[in-house]
Design goal:
The protein is mainly alpha-helical and 81 residues long. It is 53% helix and 10% strand. The protein is built from four helices and three strands. Strand 2 and strand 3 form a beta hairpin.
Length: 81
């Protein structure tokens, strides 16, 4: 489990990258539109506290590794391609 200090540091990095419009945000984070689980599932899980999120403006961001871990922990909800 991440400590509050690690989360705070990650949020600072996200805020800086988001201000610059950096591609680092895209590479390291999912937003509600890019999440492979779908936007509604992403928003419901974020609201339930399944993974830490950050909102720079209107976008809701979560670390890719946290979201991927959440998706892997819920295999029964994944759609079959």
């Amino acid at each position: 489990m991440r400590t509050q200090l690690e989360i705070d540091e990650a949020l600072k990095v996200v805020a800086e990258a988001a201000k610059r419009g950096s591609a680092d945000v895209v590479a390291a984070f999912y937003d509600q539109y890019s999440c492979p689980a779908g936007s509604n599932a992403f928003l419901r899980a974020a609201k339930a506290g399944a993974f830490p999120t950050y909102r720079p403006g209107k976008r809701l961001l979560a670390r890719r590794e946290d979201v991927d871990r959440w998706i892997e922990a819920h295999p029964e909800t994944r759609a079959v391609a």
